[in-house]
Specification:
This protein is of the alpha/beta class. The protein has 3 domains: 6-130, Orthogonal Bundle (Fumarate Reductase Iron-sulfur Protein, Chain B, domain 2), CATH 1.10.1060; 146-240 and 411-477, 3-Layer(bba) Sandwich (FAD/NAD(P)-binding domain); 244-407, 3-Layer(bba) Sandwich (FAD/NAD(P)-binding domain). It has helices at 6-9, 20-23, 37-44, 54-58, 65-73, 77-85, 91-97, 101-104, 117-130, 154-165, 194-207, 223-229, 258-270, 292-304, 340-348, 417-422, 450-453, 458-477, and strands spanning 146-150, 169-173, 210-212, 232-235, 241-242, 255-257, 284-288, 308-312, 359-360, 363-370, 376-383, 396-399, 402-405, 409-411, 445-447. Helix 7 packs antiparallel against helix 9 (117-130). The longest helix is centred in the last third of the chain and has 20 residues, at 458-477. The radius of gyration is 23 Å and the shape is globular. Bound molecules: flavin-adenine dinucleotide and iron/sulfur cluster. Iron/sulfur cluster (SF4) is lined by residues 59, 61, 63, 65, 94, 98, 100-102, 117-118, 121, 459. Pathway: Amino-acid biosynthesis. Residues 38-69 form the 4Fe-4S ferredoxin-type domain.
Length: 497
């Protein structure tokens, strides 16, 4: 702790966002380029270096937060990068995308604004790349053992990097045409520009990880063939089975799942398409679902030039302060949060029927109406109470000619041939069943990430990838313990009261 009084003398200062009118005209990240470095050492100084750092426990990766806060505040960026990379393969991803449960668990947050941990993390990660502190780390020698990773999201990539560095020969199979899972197709570029992903992939290639795109395991390569070719197989298939909204009018055209819509916008950014075939330009957009995926649709629709955008959330609007009974410190509280996308839609006033941030809370969709051509034209909703009972006389109609469903995901695609071919056991909620060693019911086949945990977060996916790598390394080497760290077990969950 370079300055023991830092938390008393320096107020919390956030990474400044670009003006709304400027940033909605492009797909770049919403922050002011270069605005973090001048403030971040003082921000890191606010860390009190508490005896028991709850931030460290709240982070699924067990990031050594007080250590790197101290190193940053002392201007030792190389050492900070080493400590950060000791627990996190991809801090430039989490530093941009993580909801930062660590900050909810920061001891300072008991009675003051938390340390800007996530911003310190991204500053270290970006500086590491700029100053060459993140070179490829190929293994000293090869083990002669081979591993196939199916799925190239953050879980698959973290597992592949750990196992490659441990000396195993690793190939990552991906059915999409590019590597990255939801980091590539799903999460919009205004949250994380794809160049960060490409730079990591170049590092992984230089270390020896092989990538095979446009290859669906279960179709292009059968499960039995894959198993026969490799000593171990890791399934990091993601949770792609989306939830449906069974209300009258659902089959009208113009109603799409968020994950049918968002990847097309990513393809525009990648230069594959000039315009998205589902573009929101000039359309009245209603997003059903109040979560982050819905917010990503909101920011995308605003950038595409929607005539209006409204996001419906079935839950009541949460308060701005932590409810100490329901979500006591250091758990992650359910509070009102204004994401960059909500700020944009609110500032633009594109949601005539909704509140200032384009959200309608406690709103339940009753039905859609269409025109003579079978196209959706309006959405009917009703306000609901906390038990989801309709509030009398609260019905309203919104104009809607593009409806995006963002209702969450249950598990991997149940029709994925791979699951049947392997004879995998599934949990009742649809995720891949696994034991304490991340192994499925099929010997030599492991499962990690959203496919086994259920819909989660990038930070959990990276932690899953690191942990499954440790389990596979142990099995392949026959040793009692792996040299690789395992930050979580398969049944660990976020801290709750
Ligand atoms: C729109 C959206 C936005 C999100 N935003 C955030 C955010 O801001 N912050 C955050 O922390 N989390 C966010 N999440 C959640 C986060 O992206 C996921 O938790 C994380 O990506 C899961 O990683 P994964 O590696 O398990 O799976 P995924 O990233 O889903 O990757 C799985 C990959 O497996 C491939 N695959 C599946 N089956 C096969 C097969 N048979 N053969 C070959 N390949 C196959 C798929 O094509 C896919 O590329 C978001 C999720 C969505 C949907
Ligand atoms: S990965 Fe997430 S929880 Fe962990 S230190 Fe970074 S922002 Fe915090």
């Amino acid at each position: 702790m370079a300055d023991p009084k830092g938390f008393m003398t320096t107020p919390r200062q956030e990474y400044p966002r670009r003006p709304v009118r400027e940033r909605i005209r492009d797909w770049n990240e919403v922050y002011v380029p270069g605005a973090l470095l001048p403030i971040i050492e003082k921000q890191a100084d606010r860390c009190m270096d508490c005896g028991i750092p709850f931030c460290h426990d709240a982070c699924p990766l067990g990031n050594l937060i007080p250590e790197w806060n101290d190193l940053v505040s002392r201007d030792d960026w190389r050492a900070a990068s080493d400590r950060l990379h000791a627990t996190n393969n991809f801090p430039e991803f989490t530093g941009r995308l993580c909801p930062a449960p660590c900050e909810a668990g920061c001891v300072l947050a008991i009675n003051q604004p938390a340390v800007t941990i996530k911003n310190v993390e991204v500053a270290i990660a970006d500086r590491a790349w700029e100053d060459g502190f993140a070179p490829p780390r190929p293994p000293d020698r090869l083990s002669g053992r081979t591993v196939a990773v199916v799925g190239s999201g953050p879980a698959g990539l973290a597992a592949a990097q750990q196992l490659t560095r441990a000396g195993h020969t690793v190939a990552v199979y991906e059915r999409a045409d590019r590597i990255g899972g939801l980091l590539r197709y799903g999460i919009p570029a205004f949250k994380m520009e794809k160049r960060h992903l490409d730079r990591r992939l170049a590092q992984m290639r230089a270390e020896g990880t092989k990538f095979r795109t446009s290859t669906t395991i279960g179709t292009d390569i059968g499960a039995a063939e894959l198993k026969a070719r490799y000593d171990a197989v890791i399934l990091a298939l993601g949770a792609t089975a989306w939830r449906e909204l069974d209300v009258p009018g659902r089959r009208l055209s113009g109603i799409h799942q968020a994950m049918e819509y968002l990847p097309l916008a990513d393809r525009v950014c990648e230069g594959d398409l000039e315009v998205s075939p589902l573009s929101a330009a000039g359309r009245h957009v209603v997003i059903v679902g109040g979560g982050d995926t819905g917010a990503d649709c909101l920011g995308t629709a605003v950038r595409e030039g929607a005539a209006s955008v409204t996001q419906l959330d079935i839950y009541a609007q949460p308060g701005t302060e932590r409810d100490e009974d329901a979500d006591p410190w250091p758990t992650y509280p359910k509070i009102y949060r204004l994401s960059a996308a909500h700020e944009e839609a609110g500032a633009l006033g594109t949601a005539p029927a909704a509140d200032a941030d384009a959200r309608l809370f406690a709103a339940s969709t009753l039905r859609f109406d269409g025109d003579a051509d079978g196209r959706v034209r309006s959405l009917h909703l009703v306000e609901v109470d906390e038990r989801r009972r309709p509030v009398p006389d609260s019905g309203r109609t919104l104009p809607a000619d593009l409806v995006l469903l963002a209702l969450g995901f249950s598990g991997p695609d149940p029709h994925d041939g791979l699951i049947d071919q392997l004879g995998l056991e599934l949990e009742p909620r649809g995720t891949i069943a696994r034991g304490t060693d991340f192994g499925t019911n099929v010997p030599g086949v492991y499962a990690a990430g959203d496919a086994a945990r259920g819909q989660s977060l990038v930070v959990w996916a990276i932690a899953e990838g690191r942990a499954v790598a440790a389990a596979v390394d142990r099995a392949l080497s026959g040793a009692a313990r792996s040299r690789l760290p395992a930050p979580i077990g398969p049944y660990d969950r976020p801290m709750t009261a």
